[in-house]
Amino acid sequence: MAGVRAAEPPLSARESDPRVMGWMQGFPPPPDRLITQPDSVYFSFPRLRWSVCHLRELLPTEQISRGLGAPVPLPYLPGDEFVEAGRQIDALTFTPLGAAEPMSFQASLYANYTDGMLILHRGRVVYERYFGCLQEDGKHAAMSMTKSVTGLLAEIMVVEGDLDESALVRDIVPEIGGSAFATATVRQVMDMTTGVRFSEDYGDPDADVWRYSAAASPLPKPAGYRGPDGYWEYLRLVEPEGEHGAAFHYKTINSDMLGWIISRVSGRSVTELASERLWRRMGAEQDAYQTVDGKGVPFAGGGLSAGLRDLGRLGLLMLNGGVIDGQRLFPAQVVENIRAGGDPDRFSGFPTIPGGSYRSQWWVFHNDAGAFAARGVHGQTIYVDPTAEMVLVRFASFPRAQNALIDPTSLPAYQAVADYLNSR
Questions:
Q1: Which domains does the chain have, with CATH numbers?
Q2: For 227, which DSSP code?
Q3: Of 249, 296, 282, 231, the residue nearest 62 (C-alpha)
Q4: What is the mean pLDDT of residues 398-415?
Q5: What would the pLDDT profile of 341-400 be if each residue is shown by its tens digit?
Q6: What is the Cα–Cα distance from 412 to 105, expressed in whole angstroms?
Q7: Cα 43 from Cα 41, distance rounded (Å)
Q8: Any idea which residues carry the catalytic annotation?
């Protein structure tokens, strides 16, 4: 069509590296290299690639404390063996979904704008690399992997008898009023099978997710703003769409509703619960943090930032049924429930995960390996492969917020690593 230009391809991973771009470098940085609030473009590409490691400089956060004890180091392969395993993994090849030409594992890291990659096999680190804004002592936005932490905490409470999964939301949080959530069960919220209206197309400027973001913004509301203030005020206004329990619909508001539920039942914020039940007990080496709204409510659906190795520890907990470093943190039934998954017949709209399901805010692949994962936009992943005894953690800053664009060069790469580890 005349007058319409094709979209220019984005900068490559190497070209958009924050160190190459010069974001926030200098004393002071040049005006065109600044990334600040309240300028909302800090999460647009390529600024995104700096911001994912610096959220607490842009938004208020609440700490997830690891406590005062010494961290429990992760075991590594011996030096020469570790180097050789890294070389062999980088050289692995696979064919991306829908493609004809093979790709190496190392090439996939750049194709997916990887910022950090950690692979554990049988409890030992066999691969670790950092790129872009991330260094080994840094923290990175986990995006919607936050949901899986929230869901894990809820599943622990269910298994331990502190939370009734069959209870209605209104019976736990009566302030929800006439919201569509009122008549959903806790389990339906946990598995995102609620019938609630919420559009989450980040490419649509009129999507509900942007109104949700406006409500949750901790910054002063603009003049004339008349909408809800904070996550929980928004949840009280959600309207119905469809029938509770009928189908899976990926909607972040379920995670924040779940955060409200477990906070009400436990008397703890989700950040306090994550600290008490996970970070303080799993030998974490760094505190994590979570963004909050203007009223101090943690973003249970996407606000977590953490260290790469600490999310590796979380993956080990899931691989080993609640045990790490010989210590049991929660009942094995918690992971068994999650690994069992939901009803695949109610799961649709995700062509790169055919036959999959969603359970307690974790993605379940129902493949031969029994794999399941925490996933977040722009490429965040904790991928657990029980058959290969593998945990793979990736932080990334892919230009677009659609994992369906990354899966073709990610999921086969994970399988290639699993096959390699199984052959060792």
A1: 140-423 (3.40.710.10)
A2: S
A3: 296
A4: 96
A5: 999 999 999 999 999 999 999 999 999 999 999 999 999 999 999 999 999 999 999 999
A6: 10
A7: 5
A8: 144
